[in-house]
Amino acid sequence: MARAASELSGSAVPDTDGRRRVVVENVRPCVDGGRFPVKRVAGDHVEVTADVLADGHDVVAAVVRRRRDGERRFREVRMQPLGNDRFAASFPVDVLGRHSFSVRAWIDRFATWRDQLGRRVEAGQDVRVELAVGVELIEAAAGSAPAAAATELRKWRDRLAGDDPEAGAAAALDPALAALMAAHDPRPHATDSDVAVPVWVDRPLARFSAWYELFPRSLGGDRHGTLRDVRGELARIARMGFDVLYLPPVHPIGETHRKGRNNMPAAEPGDVGSPWAIGAAAGGHTAVHPDLGSVADVRRLAEACTKRGIALALDIAFQCSPDHPWVSEHPEWFRHRPDGSIRYAENPPKRYEDIYPLDFESDDWAGLWQALADVVRFWLRQGVSVFRVDNPHTKPFAFWEWMIADITRDHPETIFLAEAFTRPRVMERLAKAGFTQSYTYFAWRNGKHELESYLHELTRTGLRDYFRPNFWPNTPDILTEPMQTGGRPTFAARLVLAATLSPSYGIYGPAFELVEQRGLRPGSEEYLDSEKYQLRDWDTAAPGSLEPLVTAVNAARRAHPALQTNERLEFRHVDNDMLVAYTKHTEDRGDIVLCIVNLDPHHTQSGWVDLPLEHLGIDTDGPYQVHDLLADATYTWQGGHNYVELDPHRSSAHVFHIRRRLRTEHDFEYYA
Amino acid sequence: MARAASELSGSAVPDTDGRRRVVVENVRPCVDGGRFPVKRVAGDHVEVTADVLADGHDVVAAVVRRRRDGERRFREVRMQPLGNDRFAASFPVDVLGRHSFSVRAWIDRFATWRDQLGRRVEAGQDVRVELAVGVELIEAAAGSAPAAAATELRKWRDRLAGDDPEAGAAAALDPALAALMAAHDPRPHATDSDVAVPVWVDRPLARFSAWYELFPRSLGGDRHGTLRDVRGELARIARMGFDVLYLPPVHPIGETHRKGRNNMPAAEPGDVGSPWAIGAAAGGHTAVHPDLGSVADVRRLAEACTKRGIALALDIAFQCSPDHPWVSEHPEWFRHRPDGSIRYAENPPKRYEDIYPLDFESDDWAGLWQALADVVRFWLRQGVSVFRVDNPHTKPFAFWEWMIADITRDHPETIFLAEAFTRPRVMERLAKAGFTQSYTYFAWRNGKHELESYLHELTRTGLRDYFRPNFWPNTPDILTEPMQTGGRPTFAARLVLAATLSPSYGIYGPAFELVEQRGLRPGSEEYLDSEKYQLRDWDTAAPGSLEPLVTAVNAARRAHPALQTNERLEFRHVDNDMLVAYTKHTEDRGDIVLCIVNLDPHHTQSGWVDLPLEHLGIDTDGPYQVHDLLADATYTWQGGHNYVELDPHRSSAHVFHIRRRLRTEHDFEYYA
C-alpha cells in the first residue's frame, strides 16, 4: 500500500499498515521495557494492565496473548476496560520456565456500531441503513468463523435483514449476538504492543522459603564434622520447620596463606581454614573436602533432605585458593602481574593472599564461563538445585545473565540466591540478571521508620516484579551491633521481623538459636571465634535456646498463606515508635495476620494499634478474635483501635491470626 | 571468541564480547524507552543522567555521545558521578531538528589503578610491581593516542619506569597524568546504552509564545472582513505583545447543510456558516474564501506579521463540507453507507450533516496521507509555519506521527498546536506523536488545589519531556461557567494564571479583552452569537477593555526569562485558599518572579505568603523589594512571611519581580 513520494515534496508513507488506529502503551508488569523477565511462581496469576486507545470514539477491544517459550500457539484472554483507557486481564502460570505475553488490540467495529445503534434506536431514528451495515459486519465475521459459528451468525444476519426494522434492531442489540461477534469478529488492522514481556516462572520455593545455614564441620563434637553428621541433624532442622538447608562451601580448602582462627594472617598447625578459600590438591569446585566426606555423601545428603521436604543448598563461590587445580591447569583464567605472579584479591591496602580472583577479562573468558557453568551442572547432577552464590557482585552481570539462563533452560527448578551486600543498583541488576532471590539490607534496618521505608521500596516499587528479598537476621559474616547488645529479645524480634516481613528468610545456626552474640571486637560485625575459621561445638539442647520460637514462627508461616507473599503487606499505625505493626492478608481476605514487634529489647512497650476493619473485611460492629500464633493465646478485640503491650523479657512479638466472628445458620457464633 | 557448547551440556556463550563489564541503565530524559523524542528548544541544555555500574570495585567512566541526524561523527561529553552509581552530563542543542544521544561507559583501568596505588603508597607498601602495571597502562594509551599526546604520555611512562619508586609513584599520582590518561585512555570492552534517545529541537517559539486568535471576517465593521483588514489590526496585536496570530480556517465554506447563527440546524439567507465546514465550489483546503481574499493575501499577511515579529498561524481542520472538491474527486477517501450515501459526522443521536469526516481506513489511506501533508506543504510555501490543528484526536496517531515527521524533516521550524480536548492518554499520545504544543484542561482548572495538582502533573512527571502546554482562558468553543459569571475580575485572574503558569498561552479576542461573557444558554460553554456562525462587530476601543492588562502581562513575560519556562515553577503556601501563589526563577536565580492571584472575583482576599528565601538566593536578614509588574508598584518585604491583599475590583493579581538588595563597593545599597 506504500506509495511513492507525492508530486510535491513529501516522502513515502510507512510500509506498515497505516490503518492500525489503535495504540498500546504502558504494558505492565514490565521490567526495563522487557529487557529482563518479570518473576512469578507457579500458581500465580499475572495481572496485566495496558493503556489501549484509538483516535475518535470507536470502541476498542484488546486481548493478552501469552505462551510458554517453545509453544507455537498463543493463548488469549480478553482484557476488560478499567476506565481512562486502561485495560486489564490476568492469566495463570503453572509451568516452570520462560513465558511471554503481549497485548493485541483493534477497533471493535461491531461493538462501536452496536453502541451507536442503541443510541439511534433510543432517539427514535430510522435505522434501516444502519441495520444494513450490521448485516455486512455479521457477514464478514461469518466469513472467517468456524462452520458452526458461521451458521449461527448467519441466522442473526437474517434476522437483521428482515422486513421489520424494529425486530431487526432488537436482534442487533441482543447480548447473545454481541457475545458471538466478540468471539468471531475479524480484527482488521490489529496492533500488537511493541514489547513481548518475558515472564520467568519459578517453583513456589523461590518465593516462600525458610533457610537454615550451618557448618557441617562443627557437628562432630570434638572431631571434624562430616556430611554424614549433617544427616543426623536433619530431624531437628525439619522439626524446626525449615525448607532449605544451606551449607558453606564443602570443597577442599587451600593451604597456601591459609587464615588462622579469628582471621589471623597465618594459620597455626591444625587450623581448618576458611571454606571460601576453595581448592587444594584434593580438588577444586567439584570436589568435596576429604574431612567432610565425598561427592557421594553430598548426593546421599540431598536425598535425605528431600525425604524430609528440605532442599539442600550449596555455596557457589567462584574464586580459588592458590592451591586450586585451575591455577596450574588454566593460568589464563587469572590475572598476572608484570613480575609473573598471579594477582591475589586486594582492597588496598588490605590483601587477601589466600584468594585468587578469576579474571573475567581473560582472553579465554568464554572457556571460563563454560567451566563455571559446568560446576553448577555438576552439582545439579548430584541432586542439588539450590545455590547460595557468594559475592556475585564481583563477577560480571553478563556472565550471570548467561549462566543462569543457560542452567535454568534445562533446569527451571534451580534457585540462585545472590549474596551481594553492596550498592542498590548493583543488587538490583543482579536480580534482573536472573538471581532468584537476593540478600538484602534487612540486617541494618532496625528502626521502625527504616523498616517501613525499606519494605515500601521492596514491595511498592518496580522491585516487586524482579527482586525477591531473603531476610537474614545474622549470617557468619554479619552480627550487627544491635544483635551484639540486645540479647535474646533482639534475636527474637529480628527473627519474627525477618520471617513475617519477607516470604523468604534465613538464619545462621546454631549460632542464632543459641543467641551467640559475642563480636570479634567493638565496631566489628564479625563473630568472635567465627566458624569461618575454626570448629565450634554447639549444644543445641542447651536451655534458653530459641528453638521453640523458631519452630512456632515457621509453623505460623506454613499455616498462613498471608505470610507466604508480600503482595499485601501493609504497615499499621501504632502510637509508639518502639512498636512496629503490619498486616498481611490473602487476596480473598480469607487469611489475615497482624504482626506487632517490640523493637526495644529492654523495656515493656505498649500502644494502640489502628486496623482498617472495613478494608480487611472485618465486621466493624461486633467483636473479633486475635489469636497469637506464637504464645497460643487468644484475645477478643472490638473496633479498629486496640491496646497492645509487649514485655521483651517474656515475648518480643505478637503474630496474630485475626479470626472474624461468623454465625451459623442457627445463630451460634464462632470465629474463623 | 564464542566457543562451542561445553562437553557437558551447556550452550554456546553469547557472540558479543563477554568482557563488557559495565552496564548502563535508566538513561534520562527518555520518553517511552526512546520510542518518541524528548523535546527541547534551541539554546537549551539537555541534562542527561544514567546509572552506570560494573561488578567489583573498579572505577567506571562514561560519556554522553550525541549527534544531529545526518551527522556522521558523535560529539562526546564526559559524565560526572553524582553518587550511588548515577552519572550526569549536559550538552547544548542549538540546531533545529532531530538529534540523539546515548551513553558509552567502560572500566577506567587507569583511574582504578591510580586509586589503588594512592592507598598502597599511603600504607607504605612496596609499589614497584604496581608501577610496572602503570607503565603498561600508559604505554597502551600512547599506542592509540595522537602523536603529540603519545609523546607526552611516554614522558610520563619513563618517569614511572625510573629507578626511584618514590619519584615514580609521585609521577603516577600527578593529576596532570590523570587528565592526559582520561583523554587518551583506550576504552576496552566499552558498553553502549541499549537506547539512543532521540531529541527533537524546536525553535524557542515552540515553548514560549503568546497567541491571539481572531476571526478576520468580523473586522469589516458592517461588511464581511478580509485578510487585508487583519493587516490593519496588526499594530494593535503587536502593541499588546503577542507572538502568534491565529486565524480560524480561511477556506471556502460549504453551502450544503450550512449551520445558521447560534448553531441553528438551517442557515438563513446571508448566514456565513462555520469556517470549519471546509470546501465549496471555490475550492478546498488550499483555497481562500473569496470574501476573505486570496492565497496571495495570506502570503502578504504572513509577511506583514513577520515584520512585526509575529508568526501567522492557520487552522488545519482535516474534514470536508459536502461541497468540498475531494468529495467528487476522491470519493474513496470518505466512508460510504450501504445505501450509497457518504457518512456524515455523527455522535448518535447528534448529526453533523455539514461535515464529512475523512476515512483513514480507506483502501487509499496512503494517498489520503500524502494529500493532507500536501495541504500543510502548500501553506508552508505561502510563508505560514505555525498550525493550530483542529480535533487531531479524531485522526489516527500513526498519521500524525508520519506527517509531522515528514514536514519537519525539511521544515524543522514548523509548529503544530494540537486542539485535542479529550482523555489524558489520547492528548499525551498526540504530543508524543509530534505535536509541538497542546491545548490543555486549564480552562476547567479553577480552584487552587486543581491548579496546583494539574501543574504538578504537567511539570513534575514524564509529561515535562514531551507535552508542552498552551493555556487558553477562552476559545471560540469554550466560555466556562466561571467566565460567564465572574466578570472582569475572573477574566483578569484567568489571563494572569494562563500567562504565568504556562510559557505558552493564548486568548480568543477581541471577545476576551472586551469581557464577552454571554453564554448561549445556561449550562452551555458556547458563546451567544458566536463568531463561529456569524460576523461580530467588536469595538476594541471601548472603555473597560482589558487591553492594558494584556499588554502589561505580555511585557512582563518578555522581560522576565523566569516566565519563559516551567522548569522551576514552585507553588508557595498562602494561608488562604482563595489566593494561589507561585514562583518561577531562572537556573542562576538571576530572575525571580512571584505571582499571587485572587481566585475570588467578588471579595478582597488577603493572607500571608511563605517564601523560602535561602532556596531563592535572597538574603534572609535584610529587606528586599517586590515590584509589581502589572501595577508598577514597589513594596519592601522582610523575611519569608509577608502579607498580601488583593481587591478583585482593583486588581486580581500581583506579578512581582523580586529584587534583591545589593551593595556597591562604596556600600550604597540598591536593588536588582
Keywords:
homodimer; 672 residues; alpha/beta; Immunoglobulin-like; TIM Barrel; eight-stranded parallel β-barrel; 16 helices; 32 strands; 28% helix; globular
How much strand of chain A? Answer: 15-25%
CATH architecture of the largest domain in chain A: Alpha-Beta Barrel
CATH superfamily of the largest domain in chain A: Glycosidases
Shape of chain A: globular
First-to-last CA distance of chain A: 66 Å
Give the CATH class of the largest domain in chain A. Answer: Alpha Beta
Q: What's the CATH topology label of the largest domain in chain A?
A: TIM Barrel
Largest sheet of chain A: 8 strands, parallel, barrel
Largest interface: A-B, 80 and 81 residues
> Could you list the spans of chain A in which at least 5 consecutive residues all have pLDDT below 50?
1-9
Structural features, described:
2 copies of one chain form a homodimer. By secondary structure, chain A is of the alpha/beta class. Chain A folds into 3 domains: 180 residues, Immunoglobulins (Immunoglobulin-like, Sandwich), CATH 2.60.40; 360 residues, Alpha-Beta Barrel (TIM Barrel); 106 residues, Immunoglobulin-like (Sandwich). Chain A is 28% helix and 24% strand. Chain A contains 16 helices and 32 strands. In chain A, the strands form 8 sheets. In chain A, strands 11-12-13-18-19-20-21-22 form an 8-stranded parallel beta barrel. In chain A, helix 9 packs parallel to helix 10, helix 10 packs parallel to helix 11 and helix 14 runs parallel beside helix 15. The longest helix of chain A has 17 residues. Chain A is globular. The N terminus of chain A is likely disordered. Chains A and B meet through strand 3, helix 1, helix 2, helix 9 and helix 10 of A and strand 3, helix 1, helix 2, helix 9 and helix 10 of B.
